[in-house]
Amino acid sequence: MDTADFSRRNFLLQSLAGAGSAWLAAAWPELLAAKQHAQHTMRAVAVGVPAKLEFLTPAQAAGVEAITALIVPTTDTPGAREAGVVYFIDHFLLTLGADEQKPFANAMASVEGKRKELFPASADFASLAVAQQTEILKAIENTPAFNLFRSFTMIGFLGNPEDGANRDMVGWKLVGFDNAPTHTPPFGYYDAEYAAEQAAAAKGGKK
Amino acid sequence: MNQVMRKFAAGDEVDFAIIGSGAAGGVLAKELSMAGFSVVVLEQGPYLREEDFQHNEFRTIFQHTLTNNPKRQPVTFRKTEQEKAKVQSTLLYGRVVGGGTVHFTANYWRFHEIDFIERSKRGAVAGAALADWPITYADLEPYYTKVEWEIGVSGQAGVSPFDPPRSKPYPMPPLPIKSTGAIFERGARKMGWHPFPAPIAILSQNYRNRAGCVHCGYCEQYGCEMGAKSSTLATVIPEAERTGRCEIRAESYVREIRTDAAGRVTGVAYFDARKAENFQKAKAVIVCANGVETPRLLLMSKSSLFPQGLANSSGLVGRHLMFNTYTLAYGQYEHPLNEYKSQTVTRVLQDFYELDPNLGFCGGGGLDMRFDMHPITYSLFGLPPGAPRWGAEYKSEIQRNYTRTGIVACHGSSLPVATNSVSLDPEIVDEWGLPAARITYKDHPDDLKTGQYLLARAMELLDATPALRKWSDPVREQQFGVHLLGTCRMGNDPKTSVINSDHRAHDVPNLILCDGSSLVTGGRGQPTMTIQALAYRAADRIVALAKRGELSAPARAS
């Protein structure tokens, strides 16, 4: 961060507080940019989480990643794997989601239990074929264990990159969510159409 | 802002201790401090600033950054007084400086004339304690206008034929229309209904040194980092602080209002941020803690003079809880709506505000259209029933429809029912050792019919738009409340109400209650505007009472 730049922005922010509205209107776009920049800089949270494990063992992580990839599979578009959801979950369990460690362990145990029941000869979840993994999840899909994995996966897939979720914003790109700090009208198809109709009607009215 | 907030010393007696800094508490803090009184505002939650608000769905919504945390303050629920209540997530309310106005959607509908006189107009309704207000719409009209101009409300007067009379137009034009607004307006017109631009407490343009909305979309359930949402945090609270006579004391959780042998309030006992107990002396106490926390505090403030709880000689403290009915109809569309942009609601209709008595039930409501889900919430809760919940088909569903879904929201009346109530749970306590609020709630049968009626209109509207696919949540008895209303109702008779039309407790001369608990009827689903208009009116009454020395009068013989 450029310190000189930052203090200039701070100065602008302080000016904003005492400004009259006419001046404010004229200076607004620059002030807005300054305010947002300053706020985002103040929240200098590590953006993205490195692809390394801090909480899960490599074996557990392989299982978790396989589960997340069944919930949001890689197709012609990126899925949970590409979004780094397993690394989000690993980081999450040590930070924002620290009080979820126990429910998470229970959910892992529940998947392991079902695996041993359905595929007693298997070594672990990750090494099973996708069809067999799918069978295990289907068998538990109405349980709290599955709901936990589903919630964690979607938070990791569609959450905020500043929390280590949604690597390269692949989740947001998939669903069409644009996290720009501001937007301007028209926002969507139907209000654009509405504005065009209003404009045409106004033009017609003038004739 | 560089103003230095007044700090009172321990042991100082202030003119007013105000409990809660939301829609009502913020307004009263400003009005009373501007009138020359010393004021301490005690707020349970933290003092977050604009720079603390985040564009972060998980942290804000799933981690209760701005609202009550049910893990720290559990609430118990039961449907009837015969059942034992169980801990469940029952309530959502703002728990920061600014209260619910920080995270609210900012729908600022005025109540209509009918809301104040429904009992005399409709007659008695079996199973409901419907009553007229001691004031009318005309009494409150100047204060509705005052709210619009003081805090900044965007809207357009004169479009809806159902609008109640008003003395002044809105101070600024409506916010720009969104796709749900365009769809809604077109569908409603086809049905012969009367859509109009939504009145919203968010600035559509710069106003009084605050900047207009920049359409970031982190709005309902989020704090506005631009100060464009007209929360009390962004409007009246800084003005109160600038008087030099008002201290906002955050993370101060009031446990008891104390009284003397004469039955007058002397101040409040509260826990500070470190859970140490303190006492704030005050000449008068104003409770604006919301429709659940206000009665809970009165019930916790028992004494030998007030064995049923403070101000509760009527036995009505905590009764007549109303949540408002809220039913939803969803539609999926061919083209992107991109509803995640900008603030939430842009068109409303009120054709069903006062339903025909010949339908056989009492109530009414209004509709709007919106899609108030960020991606995580949508992916977990926004899909149609029966849609895949995981796998490739699920992925296609969220890919296609996140930007293409809209919701017609139906906001309706709740009738006041004496057994719908807030009481103290006999067993469960919160993190501070205080008894949990116990909610007893079962919708009046007419409320379910109102919800069903409005939902049927919403489904017709979705057909008229036309949606490619539509579905609705079933109408069920509610077990979750966001609008917390009616629990210390206003009235002229101390036997049938808790406060008089000045908001003064019938039983205690220097105790004022002003928030959702004051409402006699719940309106049609958008109560904040009325709570705030009441607060402006209450401020005028309190100043007049104080000047006449009436707040120092002895307690009413009980």
* Residue fraction in strands of chain A: under 5%
Task: Report how far the terminal alpha carbons of chain B are from each other.
Answer: 48 Å
Helical run tally of chain A = 9
Q: What is the CATH topology classification name of the largest domain in chain B?
A: FAD/NAD(P)-binding domain
Q: Give the biggest beta sheet of chain A.
A: none
Fraction of residues of chain B in helices?
10-25%
Secondary-structure class of chain B: alpha/beta
- Report mean pLDDT of chain A, rounded to a whole number: 83
Q: C-alpha Rg of chain B, in Å?
A: 23 Å
Largest interface: A-B, 59 and 58 residues
Into which percentage range does the β-strand content of chain B fall?
15-25%
What this model shows, in words?
The complex is a heterodimer of chains A (207) and B (558). Chain A has 207 residues and is an all-alpha fold. Chain A has two domains: 44 residues, no CATH class; 118 residues, no CATH class. Chain A is built from nine helices and no strands. Chain A starts with a helix and ends with a helix. With 558 residues, chain B is of the alpha/beta class. Chain B folds into two domains: 297 residues, FAD/NAD(P)-binding domain (3-Layer(bba) Sandwich), CATH 3.50.50.60; 161 residues, 2-Layer Sandwich (Cholesterol Oxidase, domain 2), CATH 3.30.410. Helix content of chain B is 24%, strand content 17%. In chain B, the strands form three sheets. In chain B, strands 1, 2, 6, 7, 8, 9 and 17 form a seven-stranded mixed sheet that branches. In chain B, strand 14 and strand 15 form a beta hairpin. In chain B, helix 5 packs across helix 12 and helix 6 packs across helix 11. Chain B is globular, with a radius of gyration of 23 Å. The mean pLDDT of chain B is 96. At the A-B interface, helix 2, helix 7, helix 8 and helix 9 of A face helix 2, helix 6, helix 9 and helix 10 of B.
